[in-house]
Design goal:
DNA/RNA_pol_sf; DNA_polymerase_A; four-stranded antiparallel beta sheet; DNA-directed DNA polymerase activity; about 525 residues; DNA replication; alpha+beta; DNA binding
Length: about 525
């Protein structure tokens, strides 16, 4: 079939219930969207392959074929260019029909095909969402952004020069540290200047500097704050990433081993509050911004089936619900203890909370403790729907690099440290990964609900998703549909809970705001 005939073919088949099977959504869907064609369902072989290759539900022998190494290595296309067939694309050397057959065989023989099937369907739907967000773009006012930069940094400087705000801070820093030629942008120079001023520091991280009592520290921290803004979201960012009043990044479902998303281009997953006032809805449109309150503790209650913790989660503030239930005395203790349980902070003040939490929430605390012990033993753990953690010593792993317990080198103390670090990783993997699964189900259902709200126009003329980050979504919608979008966002969250946890009574309350500017959502 000639490439130019594909959009019409897909549009015609979309009139009936169909699921498209393709090697990779990033290679096919952008060009379809550019032709005004929206796909309801797909099976993304690249993403499904990555999940199946690590899932403990799957017999790995069923996934092995001659081109399996190519599928293992296949990367997404990370340019918003809508070209259907990139030149010299490694996907062209793979056999999607054979890979699909292998995946179907692996799913049929899986120990829990229902859960795994839900995960793969949600992962593929997430790929459609990601492509649609790039296609539609996040509305962005370049004039507002430039005004924010001028207000914070001063007028745009010539290339190679500092903005006025940084130049004003520079003499204060140099004078206080008695370093007249100091370049604060050089970590090495800065560390030497701090030590020469008598400050006992081993690094120049901001949290280290915040502990110091010295007249040079406040202007230095302010300098670094503004410098980060300049580097991450300054005028060069504006020139590069905002076109036609839209910020378009490329979102990567499954970009992190836990299943959380990543992004490439423009730092889409870390847009600072300082520039969010530039995200302004089109005239006659609004943003509906929704985020889940305390997603991961709620997921922990649901996946462990801990009824007492689920009771605390009936409160909009789960931590306050723990106080009301008598688990701990204060909200601060509740938050510290649960975060310690999920992230491995089981010493110090958070460790002091653990015995009380374990008595009150034995199933929830027991689940993360067992995941930690499994990691320390070098075992693979899994999320609720079957995403497997990386094998210790097998590459990949925690983005923070906890080390690998299977590594034989080093002293006994080093090996013990690596085991504990991997245990902290697997402790969090099971919860963070299941939270990512809940969010994928939320997105997949919400995407279709929004489409049904919007009449007969193309994607960008209907309510549509423009941003997603872990537990927060932003929908761009015609103003008259904002109330309906609010209802559908909440309904999709409830449906995601039912999909993952069935009849178990766990709530996922949302904070929802209808605003003209993203910054107004709080």
């Amino acid at each position: 079939m000639p490439a130019e005939e594909l959009p019409a073919f897909v549009r015609g088949r979309e009139r009936t219930a169909v699921r498209w099977v393709w090697d990779d959504t990033t290679r096919w869907y952008p060009a379809l969207l550019a032709s005004g064609v929206r796909v309801e369902r797909c099976w993304d072989l690249r993403l499904a392959h990555a999940v199946l290759r690590r899932s403990p539900f799957v017999d790995q022998d069923l996934l092995v074929g001659g081109d399996t190494p190519g599928w293992d290595a296949l990367a997404p296309v990370t340019t918003p260019d809508a070209a259907l067939f990139p030149l010299d694309d490694p996907a062209d050397r793979l056999d999607p029909v054979a890979e699909h057959a292998r995946q179907r065989a692996a799913m049929t023989a899986a120990t829990d095909p229902g859960r795994l099937g839900l995960l793969l369907a949600a992962e593929s739907s997430g790929a459609l969402v990601a492509a649609e967000m790039t296609h539609a773009g996040l509305p962005w006012r370049a004039d507002v952004h430039a005004g924010l930069l001028t207000g914070l940094l001063g007028p745009r400087p010539p290339a190679g020069h500092r903005p006025a705000a940084l130049e004003r801070l520079l003499p204060q820093i140099r004078g206080a540290l008695r370093a007249p030629t100091l370049n604060p942008d050089s970590p090495g120079e800065l560390l030497r200047a701090l030590r020469a001023a008598g400050l006992p520091v081993t690094d120049t991280r901001s949290w280290t500097l915040q502990e110091l009592d010295h007249p040079g520290i406040p202007p230095l921290l302010e300098y670094r704050k503004l410098s980060r803004l300049l580097q991450a979201n300054g005028w060069n960012w504006l020139d590069t990433w905002v076109r036609d009043c839209r910020f378009r990044s490329v979102f990567l479902p499954g970009g992190v081993v836990t299943g959380r998303w990543a992004a490439t281009g423009g730092g889409a997953l870390s847009v600072p509050a300082q520039v969010r006032p530039a995200a302004v809805a089109d005239e006659g449109w609004r943003f509906v911004v929704a985020d889940v309150a305390q997603l991961e503790p709620r997921v922990l209650a649901g996946m462990s089936g801990d009824a007492a913790m689920a009771e605390a989660a009936r409160s909009r503030d789960l931590y306050q619900g723990m106080v009301t239930g008598g688990a701990v005395a204060t909200r601060a203790e509740a938050k510290l203890g649960i975060l310690g349980a999920m992230y491995g902070g089981t010493r110090g003040e958070s460790g002091r909370m653990m015995p009380r939490l374990a008595r009150r929430y034995p199933r929830a605390i027991g689940l993360v403790e067992e995941a930690a012990r499994a990691g320390e033993r070098g075992e693979v753990v899994r999320t609720l729907l079957g995403r497997g953690s990386p094998s210790p010593g097998g590459g990949g792993g925690d983005p923070e690099g906890p080390g690998e317990p299977g590594t034989p080198s080093g002293s006994p103390e080093d090996r013990d440290r690596r085991r504990r670090a991997w245990g902290r990783f697997t402790r969090n993997f099971v919860v963070q990964g299941t939270g990512a699964e809940w969010a994928l189900c939320w997105l997949a259902d919400l995407r279709n609900r929004l489409w049904r709200l919007g009449g007969t126009g193309p994607l960008e003329q209907r309510p549509h998703l423009v941003f997603f980050l872990h537990d927060e979504v932003v929908v761009h919608t015609p103003e008259h549909l904002a109330g309906a979008v609010d209802e559908e966002v909440r309904a999709a969250a409830a449906e995601a809970g039912r999909l993952l946890f069935g009849a178990f009574p766990i709530d996922f309350p949302l904070d929802v705001a209808v605003v003209s500017s993203w910054a107004d959502a709080g």
